[in-house]
Design goal:
Elements (H helix, E strand, L loop, with lengths): L1 H24 L3 H21 L3 H25 L2
Helix pairs in contact: 1-2, 2-3
Pfam families: MbhD (PF13244)
Membrane topology: Multi-pass membrane protein
Protein name: MrpA C-terminal/MbhD domain-containing protein
């Protein structure tokens, strides 16, 4: 079971690195914001797996939800 948990950790971290790379490489702003939100959601999942549920809830609510909404409103306001 321990190796299964380690495999989940490694998989989440690899997907996080890929999503963060995509957030930097996208030319359009909206896909970059969505990729950054995916990074934040994956980090909140990682925090939860590391037995820090309070940090995971804060990261999911503020990092993924609120920040993405503010960025999308800012992008829509600049067109």
């Amino acid at each position: 079971m321990n190796s299964f948990v380690e495999l989940i950790h490694i998989t989440i971290l690899i997907i996080t690195i890929i999503a963060s790379f995509l957030a930097v490489m996208f030319k359009k702003l909206l896909p970059a914001v969505i990729a950054a939100s995916v990074v934040s959601l994956l980090l909140s999942l990682e925090f939860y797996l590391l037995h820090a549920p309070d940090v995971a809830i804060a990261e999911a609510a503020i990092g993924a939800g609120l920040t993405m909404a503010i960025f999308i409103f800012a992008i829509r306001g600049t067109r």
